[in-house]
Amino acid sequence: MSKEALVEVKNLKTYFYTEEGVVKAVDGVDYEIYPGETLGIVGESGCGKSVTSLSIMRLVESPPGRIEAGEINFKGTDLTKLSEKEMRKIRGNDISMIFQEPMTSLNPVYTVGDQIIEAITLHKGVKRKEARRQAIEMLQKVGIPLPEQRVDEYPHQLSGGMRQRVMIAMALSCDPQLLIADEPTTALDVTIQAQILELMNSLKESYGMAIMMITHDLGVIAEVSDRVAVMYAGKVVEYTDVDTLFDDPKHPYTWGLMNSIPKLDKDVDRLEAIPGSVPSPLNFPEGCKFNTRCPLAKGKCYDVEPPLEDTDGGHMVRCWRYEHLEEIKKRGERIYEDRGVQK
Amino acid sequence: MAENLLEVNNLKKYFPVKAGIFKRTVAHVKAVDDISFAVEEGETLGLVGESGCGKSTTGRTILRLLEATAGEVLFEGKNVMELDKKEMRAIRRDMQIIFQDPYASLNPRMTVADIVGEPLDIHNLAKNKKERNEKVKEILENVGLGAEYMNRYPHEFSGGQRQRIGVARALAVDPKLIIADEPVSALDVSVQAQVVNLLQDLQKEYGLTYLFIAHDLSVVKHISDRVAVMYLGKLVELTDKKELFRNPMHPYTQSLLSAIPEADPKKKKDRIILEGDVPSPVDPPSGCRFHPRCPKAFEPCPVKEPEFKEYGDGHFAACHLLDQ
Amino acid sequence: MEWKEILTRLIKNKLSLFGLIIILFFVLVAVFAPYLAPPRSPEDAYEIPRAGWQVEPQPPREGYLFGTAQGSYDIFYGMVWGTRTAFRIGVIVVGLSSLFGIIIGTLSAYYGGIIDEFFMRITDVFMSIPFLVAAMVLTTILGKGLDNVMIALVTFGWMGTARLMRSQVLEIKNEEFVQASIALGASDTRIIFKHIIANCIFPVLIQAFMRMGSMVITASALSFLGVGAPEGYADWGQMITFARDWILGGQGSALKYWYTVVIPGTAIMLFSLSWNLIGDAFRDILDPKLN
């Protein structure tokens, strides 16, 4: 893309120093987010997807966590070099974040209005009365019925979906350029999830902000993303635009993920299950980190970690043997051993 | 048609809401409110619905982990609700449960051998410790875990492995019916498929019957033969899975199907996006419980409760629209 | 396994290691009491021998390592055999009252309803009476003597455990592994012992450790108030009682009779301190949030 990136993450490494050893939660991650686009980050628990976003916000708890290396360039400034005070000006103002569990991210002893008003007065420096007017306007924009009334209610009086709307209102109250959404719909029911996703898509258009959508759900990714980074064990393993990714997944892990979920419009007798489970971050294997579960792993895969390489026109893959996967796909075979009962 | 292994008739489960110093019952949460269905021998019946719709309560009430408020549950023709404590304990060998949370459902202070061996101990299915451990080993192998894990504690396992242990425990008594209460929703995507495949293999091998409870329609569709959809304590639709996905009759089922985000970016679906939230089961809406959110609601809906009845070849639904 | 790990962590922690060493020291003293301070006759070993009939305490000297207390009682002998008494009081009182507490708390929480209501109201009644006063009155009614002191302490010492156990059981009984066991057809006894008690015993153990020290202090207080062990019985509280009239020292020297107070005082303090240290360390080890 020729446009200038809004955020450019380069070789980011965030480690946690625990009693049992060093947890390399994020271990050399690169990606860019362009203005107005949605970057989807997908991966399973422990792949480091949440830690990358916390690193951008500089909210990694320290100790035990530490940004070990790398740059996070936001409009030309490296966020890793800013002081806590400078960072506070960026948080909530230029970059906002919403979380999975809206109940724990709202303070139960204040009304939702108080919390939005506080955010507005803090960053915009307007009077309280004006801030209240803006808060009500925001609640209306996120589709909360009777905003004049709801503004004086406490978080526990709202349903999960409504609370997530409040969180979004709060995050957008200062017109951020980047909204980080960390599993924003995981705790919600499907019908409510559909509401929230639609809301985020329409707000993105009207505000022209960029969204970084972190989720484990490939369906959500397909729904909202422009480009996608697939993460596994602290690294990006595949990185490309959303259509290419779903048309032609090149990393065996991505392929496995896509075929392990049942589809509504397609009947299969058995799902392709990736064997085993994610290795412990304390004990990652040598070479490619997916080699413990990969049916294609051979020779080099066990010794040398593959680089994230451009395979064709910006489709980045971290695999030594992705061409081999291509051949299998052409033959129309399954690549994963599909025995549920492992003898 | 196969015989009904389980028949649920007019099942109700109300939880009292108590308030005040004298803890008087001021209202009832109508978690399950008059539902009836049957599960045929050897089939998998999926039970789907959103959180709070009463699907888990249904499962637990059938097993009498919760006492029903009214209704009957017939297992092989016997009314489970009328059994005394001793008979109940005996019949539990035939009906088992797998839980959602692989962390909370295993006693952290017991070894895997003791967890899986517990059912054998309870029902005296092994003559001595040696025979018991032999059997435990066999069951563990059947669910894909090696004998080397026998003396480990649950915290040493990953979520998927723990769920296998939970499955092994349920299998140990050689049950006929297994109620699987959201067995994969707490697991990572790549591990979900392992457990789903395992459940399918075991069904074939042991001729099991499943009541598969989940909120994820795509998983339910994959594993079930027939699917029942629940909304606010009521069944709204029940039919063969292919029929349900081809021809959903109830507006709730239709919107539920369209709300699922699909892993295909080219398919931008025409969404039916439901307004508002699920109402509280303490004070459910009058008439049809879905009417405040229903895009197709008309005059009779807020007034009269629709009947749950058959609209051709085993396709049950409860909606006034269908009677027009 | 689990126990081994707990033990290694107890030893790793400096404070709890200190506690363990002191407890070990007291255990050794109690075990080897007959060698450290040979009794005149084995039948009444707990009878403190007297060096004479002098009323005034005498300082440490040859043959009387810690001196003699009021009435010429041998302080060293009293301290050595009193260690046994301290352990007896601690173990029996804490053991029995914890057992009652565990039974009542478990039954209350597991069965709930009317049983819970009944036991909890009894607990409330017992808790509303001041502990020390209640124990004193009951000991007075039952008559002087260590056994009666222990009965009184057990009678009024189980409520804390019962409440703790009740709240623990209430939490555990709704865990899914308990539901799973019910679904397997397990009996109530099996569920209570295998699943519930096994998972809520640790906080009760921690509390019991903490109470070991305080029970010995309370028993001493009762002795000091004159309702404890009979005169001349080897008991730390008794030793303090002997010091009652001499705490202020003599003419011209406030510290003249220091040995009568400092020696038993230090022993009681160290004893209860060490149990508290171990209890604290235990809590830190078992609290998953601190791990």
From TrEMBL, chain A:
Protein name, entry field: Peptide/nickel transport system ATP-binding protein/oligopeptide transport system ATP-binding protein
Q: Which family is this protein grouped under?
A: Belongs to the ABC transporter superfamily.
Q: Which PANTHER family match?
A: DIPEPTIDE TRANSPORT ATP-BINDING PROTEIN DPPD, OLIGOPEPTIDE TRANSPORT ATP-BINDING PROTEIN APPD
Please report the stretch or stretches of sequence annotated as the ABC transporter domain: 7-258
Give one GO molecular function term. ATP hydrolysis activity
Q: Which UniProt keywords apply?
A: ATP-binding, Cell membrane, Membrane, Nucleotide-binding, Transport
List, alphabetically, the Pfam families matched: ABC_tran, oligo_HPY
Offer a single GO CC term for the protein: plasma membrane
Among the GO biological process terms of this entry, one is:
peptide transport
| Top-level taxon of the source organism | Bacteria
Q: How does it sit in the membrane?
A: Peripheral membrane protein
* Location of the protein in the cell: Cell membrane
Automatic annotation (TrEMBL), chain B:
Recorded GO molecular functions are: ATP binding; ATP hydrolysis activity
UniProt cross-references to NCBIfam families, sorted A to Z: oligo_HPY, PRK11308.1
Q: Which UniProt keywords apply?
A: ATP-binding, Nucleotide-binding, Transport
Does the entry feature the keyword ATP-binding, yes or no? yes
Q: Give the record's family classification.
A: Belongs to the ABC transporter superfamily.
Write down the InterPro entries for this protein, in alphabetical order.
AAA+_ATPase, ABC_transp_ATP-bind, ABC_transporter-like_ATP-bd, ABC_transporter-like_CS, Oligopep_ABC_C, P-loop_NTPase
Biological process terms from the Gene Ontology for this record are: peptide transport; transmembrane transport
Presence of keyword Protein biosynthesis: no
Native source species? Halanaerobium saccharolyticum
One of its Pfam families is oligo_HPY
| Residue span, ABC transporter domain | 6-257
The molecule here is called Peptide/nickel transport system ATP-binding protein/oligopeptide transport system ATP-binding protein
Could you name the domain of life of the organism this protein comes from?
Answer: Bacteria
**Cross-referenced Gene3D superfamilies, in alphabetical order?**
P-loop containing nucleotide triphosphate hydrolases (3.40.50.300)
From TrEMBL, chain C:
What is the predominant subcellular site recorded for this chain? membrane
What cellular component terms from Gene Ontology apply here?
plasma membrane
**Which UniProt keywords are listed?**
Cell membrane, Membrane, Transmembrane, Transmembrane helix, Transport
Q: How does it sit in the membrane?
A: Multi-pass membrane protein
Subcellular location(s) per record: Cell membrane
Task: Name a biological process GO annotation.
Answer: transmembrane transport
The source's superkingdom equals Bacteria
- Domain named ABC transmembrane type-1 is located at 83-279
Stored SUPFAM superfamilies? MetI-like
> Which Pfam families does the entry mention?
BPD_transp_1, OppC_N
TM stretches of this protein: 15-37, 86-113, 125-143, 191-210, 257-278
Family stated for the protein in its record? Belongs to the binding-protein-dependent transport system permease family.
Q: What is this protein called?
A: Peptide/nickel transport system permease protein
